[in-house]
Amino acid sequence: KSGIFLNSNNDFKGDVAFASPGSVTLRDGSGLTLSSSNAGDDLTVNSGGLTLDGDIGVGRHFIAEISGDVIQRSGKIEVGGETRVAATGPDGVGNIFLQSPENDFGSNPALGRNVVAVGKNIALADKTDLRLAFGFATESFTATAGGSIVQAILSSLSAGTHSVFTAGENITQEGGARMDVAGGSVLTASGGRIAL
Predict the structure, then answer these.
(1) How buried is residue 191: exposed, middle or buried, by Cβ count under 10 Å (0-12/13-18/19+)?
(2) What is the DSSP letter of 45?
(3) What is the pLDDT of residues 34-54, one digit of tens each?
(4) Which residues are paired to 137 by β-bridges?
(5) What DSSP character marks residue 186?
(6) Over 90: is that where the pLDDT of 93 sits?
């Protein structure tokens, strides 16, 4: 399939919107703002900060390596497969706030549903199930799901200050998963069970 591949040392001053039946790769030496866009295959972003300001559709996998914060200002993001977001910043790590209740990470289970997030304060929301394959927050980790929150097999999740998990169904761990939280944790499974 055709695609969009902008891998050079770009600097997009205004919002960027794209539409492609194939993969999209974007590199920006400074902050990047994406308005409503769609990639039929993978979306890969490398920038000095990332703001989502509209509905973002990704047919397969979403990979973001960001030297700053990842902020969802408006809209939702729907990713067919896996999501991997790493945020660094001036002090070593940046925040990740992907909190829209309409987000859907792993909408096509055949492509994998794992979410990986590394940052300072991390907040993720999914309208269905949220499957965490790795999480590392130097401060807080917040996860919200309309369905279940599942920590994947043999995965680890760390929070430097505290964690808050809120699920419409269950909060569970698969075999060998480990959670390490330096401070308090608040776990709410309004429609199911908690098994950690």
Answers:
(1) exposed
(2) E
(3) 999 999 999 999 999 999 999
(4) 119, 159
(5) E
(6) no
Q: pLDDT band at residue 58, thresholds of 50, 70 and 90?
A: very high
3-state secondary structure of 89: coil
Q: Which residues pair with 57 in a beta bridge?
A: 38, 78
Q: Cα separation of 178 and 32, whole Å?
A: 34
What whole-number distance in Å separates Cα of residue 125 and Cα of residue 98?
A: 6
Report the candidate in 20, 57, 11 with the shortest Cα–Cα distance to residue 35. 57
Distance separating alpha carbons of residues 127 and 145, to the nearest angstrom: 6
With the C-alpha atoms ordered 73, 40, 148, 181, is the resulting torsion angle positive or negative? negative
DSSP string over 123-181: EEEESS-EEEEEEEESS-EEEEESS-EEEEEEEEEEESS-EEEEESS-EEE-TT-EEEE
**Locus of tokens 């996860």:** 143
